[in-house]
Amino acid sequence: MSQDKIAELRKEIDSINLQILDLLNKRATIAKEIGVHQSALGTTFYDPQREAYMLTQLEMHNNGPFSNETVKALFKEIFRATLALEEKEARAKLLVQRKTAQDRTIVELPDGTKIGDGSFQLVAGSCAVETYEQMDVVGEALASRGVKIMRGMAYKPRTSPYDFQGLGEEGLKIARQVANKYNMLVTSEIMDMSQIGMMSDYVDIFWVGARNMQNSFLLRALGKVRQPVFLKRGLSATLEEWVYAAEYIASSGNPNVILIERGIRTFEKWTRNTLDISAVPLIKLETHLPIIVDVSHSAGRRDLAIPLAKVAKASGADGLMVEVHPNPPVAMSDAKQQLTIPEFHKLMDELGL
Amino acid sequence: MSQDKIAELRKEIDSINLQILDLLNKRATIAKEIGVHQSALGTTFYDPQREAYMLTQLEMHNNGPFSNETVKALFKEIFRATLALEEKEARAKLLVQRKTAQDRTIVELPDGTKIGDGSFQLVAGSCAVETYEQMDVVGEALASRGVKIMRGMAYKPRTSPYDFQGLGEEGLKIARQVANKYNMLVTSEIMDMSQIGMMSDYVDIFWVGARNMQNSFLLRALGKVRQPVFLKRGLSATLEEWVYAAEYIASSGNPNVILIERGIRTFEKWTRNTLDISAVPLIKLETHLPIIVDVSHSAGRRDLAIPLAKVAKASGADGLMVEVHPNPPVAMSDAKQQLTIPEFHKLMDELGL
Amino acid sequence: MSQDKIAELRKEIDSINLQILDLLNKRATIAKEIGVHQSALGTTFYDPQREAYMLTQLEMHNNGPFSNETVKALFKEIFRATLALEEKEARAKLLVQRKTAQDRTIVELPDGTKIGDGSFQLVAGSCAVETYEQMDVVGEALASRGVKIMRGMAYKPRTSPYDFQGLGEEGLKIARQVANKYNMLVTSEIMDMSQIGMMSDYVDIFWVGARNMQNSFLLRALGKVRQPVFLKRGLSATLEEWVYAAEYIASSGNPNVILIERGIRTFEKWTRNTLDISAVPLIKLETHLPIIVDVSHSAGRRDLAIPLAKVAKASGADGLMVEVHPNPPVAMSDAKQQLTIPEFHKLMDELGL
Amino acid sequence: MSQDKIAELRKEIDSINLQILDLLNKRATIAKEIGVHQSALGTTFYDPQREAYMLTQLEMHNNGPFSNETVKALFKEIFRATLALEEKEARAKLLVQRKTAQDRTIVELPDGTKIGDGSFQLVAGSCAVETYEQMDVVGEALASRGVKIMRGMAYKPRTSPYDFQGLGEEGLKIARQVANKYNMLVTSEIMDMSQIGMMSDYVDIFWVGARNMQNSFLLRALGKVRQPVFLKRGLSATLEEWVYAAEYIASSGNPNVILIERGIRTFEKWTRNTLDISAVPLIKLETHLPIIVDVSHSAGRRDLAIPLAKVAKASGADGLMVEVHPNPPVAMSDAKQQLTIPEFHKLMDELGL
Fold first, then answer.
1. What distance in Å separates the CA atoms of residue C105 and residue C123, rounded to the nearest whole number?
2. Minimal Cα–Cα distance from B62 to chain A, Å?
3. What residues in chain D have per-residue pLDDT under 70?
4. A85:B66 CB<8 A
């Protein structure tokens, strides 16, 4: 008995479902038309007062059994879906979002090196520029293994104002000189938009550090430079926030953004940060941007560099960032995580590069 | 022009909104009727295969502009709201959930002491029972300030199997003896349901530690005892998970659950855990259960006990848990967070108790 | 037998302890003398190569039973303690660190209002400046309750480049105008050091947001302005990092730094962030800076503002930041956390202000 | 001048270093002798009162320049190093700790399958046993790809007491029946030590879930069974806590512990948990236990299973746990993360298995 009755009632529900479906689509069609008129007027699609009005109307006419709260919650979902449709029409979602399975950004560097084309690129070098000799020794080792992009850090973001803050422009000069000697490219962290003009003379790729991931003034300014930009994930940024940070650069005019996963802050104490390797496939699914993995900052431990480099390669990342120093124990920063030159060669051997 | 057109189109949308509203409520009424028949048949309301069928039907009939994905997402919300309605009818939500602003649990202890009636109760004593002398010295101090509930920990959950694990039943005997001497009640942590029978002879309030917050076998077994239960929040449990853990006890028959906030795990290093004080007003908003704050484990630092105790009082908590030891530096566990007896008196003075 | 032997051996150890103590202090005295010479030469105290040399010497001479690793670990502790001693001599630790129990910074504002003198100051107003009318309505309510400091946010740091970014200088003008009308002070977030000159015309207190807490260029530049600076804790900054960020400002010349706790990022989902209330007593213990609590961003929920405000007051904080809007549901940002004007009055009533 | 003076003073320091070294080793030798006597007496090495006495002595004799606090901190390090030495002598550290680079546990299962020998083993099957048909379909697919270990979950730890809790013993019977049909082994989660006897009839490998990682009663009881034990990492357990949990089992007599990394709780929202892939190389460095990676719970998303499986393989893990269901959308739990059978075949293809 109950079984039959249930079957009968379910048919009624099926019919109502289709009626709701038609009304939803009819509603969406009208909303799109409103969107066209709003675009003509230059107003934004999202109008909280209009939403408040509609919700009040619905509350006034609601006789249950759904509570007013449930009705409002359901209609907010409908509003959101409609708004998404309008925005999609107008702007086709975020610039950095992936539209098709084939859609991907390939960044071409001045020497023809490409990032994002399926190759696996290394960005390597000491944590910071200290002396010409140090850079030269490292540069020679990197060049001998075909590394194309050298770290040339002259401004170090440090927790304490009393820690070594980098050599400044002097450091950039050294990095450029050594890079030229070995036919390499230089990347260096920019910390404030006032540095753009000066740094442009020395660097091939700008780099935004974790602490500046949401510095919107800097991001927008880098949207106007000709160089590509490495964008590190913030210390505890969600993937969504990171993608939006990339959108700040892209929407300001510079499409050549390369993301760098560098670990997130957790409660674990055996590593400096926790490498979030899932970020690589997720970024590949959601955006068309290249992504590389910084195995030095992620772990903060020299002894994890090789296994994490293998992991990064297997994850589908477009490359690796790794720190190399002639004598890590006396390095002026991050002594525990920089590889010696023999360790660097071992890493390259184990990766088959 | 556009302005007028927009106004006109909006009227159409207003009308469609009300049509959708009517259909949603009609649909919900039928679903409730189905629910009644299902209850008669003893089947559960949630039927994933039925949902899959409806979604397929909707996809087949969808002509846009909403994408199939959006349509399915919107209908899943509708299904969820309907299901919630059916379940609400059948069970009136969680037992521990607050139904009205006045709804609250007041736990009455054997000596008439009440928790949750607006009073501010202290649960105090050493981290663990070590000797009769230690317990006696602490018990006397507590009793002199009117504390009614004594910690009598005989089983310590320890990270390492080689750390002090508690005196076991011998410790319970000491705690009971001292509590009787000073007319106090004993609370002690239970670590496995096999201990219930034995411990029932000694303890007035069972206590589930953070590590066991989701031990459903233990929770259900404590749903069958006559004593009230302290339920500590898990090391990194969400508030929702904690409320559900309380529901395991309540739904097994024991309504006398008292929650203990004891800090959550974060990246901060100056404290052992991070006291989540927002938990107190949130638990009061969402449930009718009493909640007390453990200021010793939250911070893991003696020097924060007094300020955090004031904070707990201001937050609306029903009481405080605090550790007191005659000589903390030589305590067998948690030496850094236990108060000396003079510090305990200072705490009581500063709280005006 | 064994007991006697143990007692005898322990006496030997006691004697060795004192010999080690004397050598450690003798060593420290010499190291301090070296420090004086180094200061004369302008070199830094920390010399990793010297440390490497000493460790190698110790390894060469170590005959056990301590392993080389243990020996090196112990001596690194000795080096660290010695270095701390040298630095203390030279610089007396961080400027913002508390030296005595009485040591505290009291910030005096242009109208004589003080922060950090034991009073409880409110910083209130809408999340962002939207219109003159909105600011005027809120300003009048704030003034009627004696609030002295008004939020006048004209630059909003937003996750998405497509979200409302604030009215810019126009917003600052409105804020200034309304503040003048009601004899209030204006605080506004600065997002880039290039804004200092322009903003100085409008704001009484600069404010560094969570996303910029480690923007060292901005911090240093604010070390040179005459206005006090509110420094919000970073999204997942440790207390140590926050204190160092304050030191960047103080060491650049501006001692008037006021910290704002605004919640940290955790896994909990019922609140936007987790208010870390322990931060208040810890900052008071470790620094002499004032600290206030932002109850709006911490929870991201209007319904927690009053209980958290009480908690903040009990914690010993120097004040409160809270968002107030004439009509929160239509606010252009943070709709869920802004109080209505009646709710604001209720908050002031419940705090007894 | 200063240069010369510095060189001279440094020689003095070098000499003092060696004197301290000799005294430390002399002290350690005596302490070890005390340890031997204590072992004879059956007392523990750690004696807080003795330490308190020594610290007081040192304070009384300290004339600076080191502060009493620094002196006590340095000596606590010395005490800790000495204690470690004594414990090492007595117990040679943790049983699960790796002593040499070659040291590793290889677990041999009843059918000769080995975990930890360099092979890559799959543990696969549906999230929970639902029906014989479901298990049979999955079992056939698994067997066709050479999978040896089948998930046979009959007790599901669920957040809500009203969610599906598993079929209980009936589910175990089905799992055993299907496993026998396809010559496979069964692993199943145990939730309480009272289940050991009954479950022993059905399962080849016990499994401790994340919520029970620190259930010391259960861990100790599993130290006494003949079957190997899978030990999942707790929801927010540190690696150190996890290693100690394994030690609870090993020190109770069962050396066959296999760790399962299953993601940790962070603030990231696009994944259910954050896979901590660094755990694999770290566990290999610190312990001799095998470790496998659960790619289903780590991400909670079907679309990440293949990339994370590749990552797990590259990390050096000893195998993979993955969930497979004939029709995931209608699964009674974890619908979003279970693979369909074709997806499972794709995973095996892409891993080259």
1. 18
2. 7
3. 1, 40-48, 86-93
4. yes
